[in-house]
Amino acid sequence: MELLPLAQQAIFYLLAIVIVVCSILAVTTRRILRAATYLLFVLLSTAGIYFMLDYTFLGSVQIAVYAGGILVLFVFSILLTSKPGECTEEKSIKQRILGLVAAIAGAAVCAYALFTYKWPEIETQEIQSINDIGHALIGMDKFQYLLPFEAVSVLLLACIIGAIMIARKR
Amino acid sequence: METPMIYYIVLSLVMFFAGVYGFITRKNMLMMLISIELMLNAVDINFAVFNRFLFPGQMEGMIFSIFAIAIAAAETAIAIAIIINIYRHISNIDADNLDDMKY
Amino acid sequence: MEYTVFILALPLAMFLLLGLLDSKLKPRVAGILGTMGMTVCTALAYLTAYQFFTQPRNAEGVIPSQVPFNVEWLRFTEHLHIDLGIYLDPISVMMLVVITTVSLMVHIYSLGYMHGEKGFQRYYAFLSLFSMSMLGLVVATNIFQMYIFWELVGVSSFLLIGFYYTKPSAVAASKKAFIVTRFADLGFLIGILILSFFTKTFDFATLTANPTAIISESAGATFLGCSVASWALALIFMGGAGKSAMFPLHIWLPDAMEGPTPVSALIHAATMVVAGVYLVARLFPVYCVTPEVLDLITTVGAITALYAAIVACVQTDIKRVLAFSTISQIAFMIVALGVASDTNLHTGLGYMASMFHLFTHAMFKALLFLGAGAIIHAVHSNEMADMGGLRKYMPITHITFLIACLAIAGIPPFSGFFSKDEILTAVMEKSTFWGVWMTVVAGLTAFYMFRLYFRIFWWKDTDCSHHTPHEAPATMTLPLIFLALVTCVAGFIPFGELVSVNGEPYHIHLNWSVATTSIIVAVCAILLATWLYMKENKKPTAMANATRTLHTAAYRRFYIDEIYLFVTHKIIFGLISRPIAWFDRHIIDGTMDMFAHVTQWVSARIKGLQSGSIQAYVWILIVGTLLIATLTICYCL
Amino acid sequence: MNFLSLFVLIPILMMAGLAIARDMKQIRTVAVTFSTLQLGLAIYTAIKYMAERAAGNAEEMLFQASTIWYEPLNIHYAVGVDGISIVMLLLTAIIVFAGVFASWKIEPLSKEFFLWLTLLSIGVYGFFISIDLFTMFMFYEVALIPMYLLIGVWGSGKKNYSAMKLTLMLMGGSALLMLGILGIYYHSAPEGGALTMNILEIAHNNAIPHEWQYYLFPLTFVGFGILGAMFPFHTWSPDGHASAPTAVSMLHAGVLMKLGGYGCFRVAIYLMPFAAQELSWIFLILTGVSVVYGAFSACVQTDLKYINAYSSVSHCGLVLFAILMLNNTAMTGAVMQMLSHGLMTALFFALIGMIYGRTHTRDIREMGGLMQIMPFLSVCYVIAGLASLGLPGLSGFVAEMTIFVGSFQHTDTFHRVFTIVACCSIVITAVYILRVVGKLLYGAVQDEHHRQLTDATWWERLSAVTLIICVAAIGCLPGWISNLISNSLNAIVERLS
């Protein structure tokens, strides 16, 4: 992508704002369907981030699997388990404040670590093509991942069956 | 590539702790699941970002993200199946009500 | 003289035979078998005595002691080992004769007395066991062998006292006898330990050959102000005092009369109870080096003699009277040993006197007990109240009993006179105080013996309409007659020629001043008894009433038994055992259980953390992670 | 193959035989055959051992053999025996033999009972023949675990509580022991040498630093001491024994408790002589207390098994007490006391089991006059009692006297005074033994129902008579066994000086 640096910056900030705002809204809203919607925005923006990093394959997977697959599941399950317009119960204000404190404290500790750490300067290099990714996923050499790939496929299959088994009516 | 790496990481940091906050303050299990998704997503971003900025010639991070996404999908499917099953049993999906397996 | 082994082996074989074949044998056969065994044994003992005393004396005029048999039984250390052997010297040979004689008499007597009793074979088995143990005790070559047989006689005494095991009083008496003597034996054992630790030997010959070893080896070590040597010997004497029923360890002996009467005659009058005297005599040269212990022995003996004599005056159970008389007479022997202070013939007179009295006393006391047995056999009661006027029905018993009474009262020419005279002489020479004291006791002895005699044979004419007492069968009268004969002649045995403190012959000569005094005292006492008890009258009751407190106290044996009961039940059981048992259950075990309870309690608390609430887990996770992270940042960066 | 391994092999074959046995008759046949074989083997070993010694074989342990089975920690299956092990093996074989007859009619699950009992005996035999620390420890655990089931399943009274308590406390001991053994292992050789678990090699290397001995000695001594019922870790014993079935009580009090004393010799004293000398006084006080304390406790108990269990505390206390005197005579006495106590306490428990099986009560207040009803059992009980209170001619006397004389030879006054304290136990022993005899056997019959009861059957007689013969044999002819032990102790005593 040959975007101008400025434009790139602008897009990044846009995505960043969307992510930050939507993730906070997703965890604070009392309407669960809205939360799912906010999550959708977050996921899509994340895909945008991946595109910005030139990981187009990852971005596509993100949109296809997360935004396309998982979120649909969420929406279905929300519709199955709650009535329209119903607000979810929340914990007491005290607990929420405590949670907030914990989250902020965690964030502060992490941020401190991140900002004090000296990151190495690395030269930018050419990005691997989708070809390479494909080879890596089904190759058997070093830095190639056929076994995990197959394991994940079996896992997914097992999940499909398992999910059906668990969720079916008895 | 003018946007420095740290920007991305801070972004994922915010997302992650938003997830943490959601996880510990919401009663509804679906909401907790959504929070988990947020956290997972934040981690995925980190993988990708570290790969992109620190090990540009390789693709372990990205592949990890792909697997993480796949596993998240699997996990969500199972979790939602379980939640639906629980809902059938107790017409409610509040985590507080689910402590039969304690001890 | 290797055949002496059979003196021990025969009774042992009899015990095993009768014990193992218990009910397979006919009672009669068992009795005769046991008696025959004992007869052979007695014959062998007499043969030994004859050969021993007729052997040539050595240059000093001493009959050399012999060890015809000795095997090592158990080796402890280089120096210390228990041997089993046979040590023959004048006193052990004398004891062999006494024991086998009395034992044989008792065996024969029991054929009649125990006839038809349940457990007849068992009785003879125990008698054999006892004879074996007692014989083993007297021939012991070393102090540990003596201790071994000491314990064995203790247990056979226990078994025989508890012969009528269905009778609670007999069971209690046997228990008491065993435990009291066991307690005394503890002293004996500790004494042996101390003695052997310093002298490095158990052997009598070595110990007595070098009696000062204990003093020199212990090198002035003291404990509570007394030298260790004194402690050792005093503790050994404690063992002897327990067996010989010295005050205050005498309490078991009167109760031991619960056993069959022949057993009382054998064990609790003639043989086992003199074991303590024998023990002191055996170690006499060693005792001589610690005069303070000899003084202790004298004091204990004198107190016991007076105490027992007073108590004997008021008892109404005839066996009890005899029991206390036994205690008193043994105390005479003990006093005699105590006043003998050295191993030369003159100052060591008490030694000879003690042994002489042991010999004569064994005979006449056995006679008294067997006679009492015949009486009990006839009237089926131990109580004086049920007796009286028996002289007409039981002439043989009457005569023999009278002879024995005269002997014990110290009337010449019966054996008791000679031996008691020697004792009084020896005591008198040492200290006039004890001499007078013992003479008074001798007078008391004459009094209570004749009180007994008159109450049994005179007093009143019993109403015999429902049951006529009859003379005992021949198996019972024969031993009486034999022992009576012995009592008549024993005084003329030249005892001092055979047994004396250093083995040299000693010519017994009567000290007429002492003898006259004692005869006068004894005759006065007998007359007093005659006046009081010859015919049924109210004088004794009146006297008892006049001295009510003293009489009751004496009758209750000055409450010594009550004190013991208090100590054992209230203090040992109530204040030691029970608290310890409680402590064990509740404190020690409670602590162990507490560990278990604390574990359970803690786990019950911790399991709350496993609440099943995911959010709680996450909370803990977050807090934990934060903590670790913070700590890492603080300390590592 | 070394013939000592037969001690483990025969019980294993016995288990196989039991596994295929189908009815009670076959089970008994197998049990009797194999326990007789074991007894024969033990006697054969003893004779062969004495023949070897007589032939001048002066090796410390005879019939040694060793096979490595776990390389990384240098753990061997190493066997060998000396006089002490021989005595213990004989004891085990005799008690197993008597125990089989004592449990002739065990119900229910007889087959399983004998299987577990055999496993227990494997552990005990293995422990006594091993000279490798770890293998020894392993056999020790093998002996402990079946106990839990044997008490828990076939016991009586509060069996679950007792089984749990016993197992947990002994496991606690094992934990200390494990630490101690590892500690010894890591100091078993001088700097740079090959570490070893072999007891003889460790003793030969003599490399355990003194400051380490201060830690390792208490660990191992207490670890084994718990099994030897050392005050204040003895409380498993009364409850455990009271609940255990007859044969298990016999084997446990008779043999398993001896593992403690044996271990103290073999491991604690032998390998750490320095600390043994330095620290012995602490344990001397504890064991001296337990001698008198156990006897006093026994005086007021009313349950027959409790009386006997406390008497075991007292007698086993004497074993440890004598061991700590650290001289040849006292230690000989300790081994003899182990043997003697093993036999007579087994006899006691066998008789108590037989009486309990008839009267269904163990409370002495509810019984009386048994002499009239079951004379054989009562006479045996009296004999056991007399052995226990130390009657000459029975084994207890020999053992106790050896201990007392040996202990009193100690040059230190403190030790001698404590010996006198321990001596007092013989009087208290007499008190509680006679109390039971008087109450239980003599006197009038308490319960008229008891009059219908029968005397011992032939197998019960066989069991009791076997033990009585052994007790009397040792009591009458103690010389050979005392020599056997004392010669083997020389090696240990030499290391102490």
Order of helices and strands of chain C: HHEEHHHHHHEEHHHHHHHHHHHHHHHHHH
Q: Give, in spatial order, the strands making up the sheet with the most strands of chain C.
A: 1-2
Approximate strand percentage of chain C: under 5%
Query: Biggest protein-protein interface?
Result: A-B, 85 and 71 residues
The amount of beta strand of chain B, in percent, is: under 5%
Radius of gyration from the alpha-carbon trace of chain B, in angstroms = 17 Å
What integer is the average pLDDT of chain B? 86
Write down the Rg of chain C.
31 Å
Alpha-carbon distance between the two ends of chain C: 101 Å
Low-pLDDT stretches of chain C: none
Quaternary arrangement of the chains shown? Answer: heterotetramer
CATH C-level name of chain B: Mainly Alpha
Number of strands of chain B: 0
Q: Any idea what the CATH architecture of chain B is? A: Orthogonal Bundle
Biggest sheet character of chain B: none
Structural class of chain C: mainly alpha
Classify the secondary structure makeup of chain B into a structural class. Answer: mainly alpha
Helix count, DSSP H or I runs of 4 or more residues of chain B: 3
Q: Count the E strands of chain C.
A: 4
- Helicity range of the residues of chain C? over 70%
Written description of the protein model:
The complex is a heterotetramer of chains A (170), B (103), C (637) and D (497). By secondary structure, chain A is mainly alpha-helical. Helix content of chain A is 74%, strand content 0%. Chain A contains 6 helices and no strands. In chain A, helix 1 packs antiparallel against helix 2 and helix 2 (32-52) packs antiparallel against helix 3. Chain A is globular, with a radius of gyration of 20 Å. The termini of chain A are far apart. Chain B is an all-alpha fold. Chain B has a single domain (5-97), classed as Helix Hairpins, CATH 1.10.287. In chain B, 76% of the residues lie in helices and 0% in strands. In chain B, helix 1 (5-25) runs antiparallel to helix 2 and helix 2 (29-54) packs antiparallel against helix 3 (60-90). With 637 residues, chain C is mainly alpha-helical. Chain C has 26 helices and 4 strands. In chain C, the strands form 2 sheets. In chain C, strands 1-2 form a two-stranded antiparallel sheet. In chain C, strands 3-4 form a two-stranded antiparallel sheet. In chain C, a hairpin with a 5-residue loop joins strand 1 and strand 2 (81-88). Chain D is globular. The mean pLDDT of chain D is 87. With 497 residues, chain D is mainly α. A two-stranded antiparallel ribbon of chain D has the order 1-2. Chain D has helices at residues 6-20, 24-54, 83-102, 110-129, 133-154, 159-186, 199-205, 210-227, 236-243, 246-271, 273-299, 304-324, 328-359, 370-373, 375-388, 395-408, 413-423, 425-441, 458-476, 479-496, and strands at residues 62-70, 75-81. Chains in contact: A-B, A-C, B-C, C-D.
